[in-house]
Design a protein that fits this description.
Length: 244
Amino acid sequence: MIDRDWEREYEGRVAWIRGLVESSGVKGIIFGNSGGKDSALVGILCKAACENTVGVIMPCASRRNYGQDADDGRALAEQYGIETRTVDLTAVREAELAALEGISELSDLAVANIAPRLRMTTLYTIAAAEGRLVAGTGNRSESYMGYFTKWGDGANDFNPIADLTATEVLAFLRYLKAPLSIVEKAPSAGLFDGQTDEQEMGVSYRAIDTYLTEGAASEEDLAVIERYHTRSEHKRRPIPTYPG
C-alpha cells in the first residue's frame, strides 16, 4: 500500500503545470491520449491546470489501437471533459516503410519505433500550429529501464509524472477514480498486437518499483533490470557535443 497524500500531490502538480503554461506564454497543452495509465494521469492533471488541453488519439497499424486503446482514450476524455482529436497514422507508417524499401534491411525494433516517432511528430506539428506545449507521459520506471522510444514518446516540453513509478501512477489514478478499463488493463505500449510491457521486458513493474524505492530485488529480476538500465543509458544522457 502506497502511503501518499494524493490530494496534495494533485494540487501541487496542477499548480506547477499552470505556472509553466503561464510563464511560457502558450495558449494550451497537447498530449497523446493512448488510452494507457500514464497518458490518463497526464491528461487529468493537464486538463485541471489548463482548460485548453487537447488529447490526440493516434492509431497506427495495431488493431488494439483502433479498439481497446481508442475506447479507453475516449472514456477518459468524456469523464474529464478533455477535447479529443483522432489522427490515423497507419497510412503514414506504410508510406514510410515503402520509402525505405531497398534502402536498408529493417529490424523488428526499427519498425516498431516508427509509430511513436510519427506520433510525436504529429503532436509537435499541432503544437506549433496552435501554440501549445507537448506534455510527456513517461514514468520513472520506464525511464530507468529505458522503456521508451528516443525522439518518440521520450520527447516532450514538460513531464508532470516523471518522478512517479508505475505503481504510484496506478495508485494516483485509483485516487482520482479514473476509468476502471484503464486502471485494470495490463500496461502496453500498443506497438503491436498482443504486446505487454512486462512480458516484453521479462520483469514486472512491481519488481522494478520495489528495486527503485527499496533497493530490493531477486537475483533474476535484478539481472534484467540492470541489463535494461545499462544498455539504455544513452537515452537518458544529454546529446554529446564537440567541446571545442
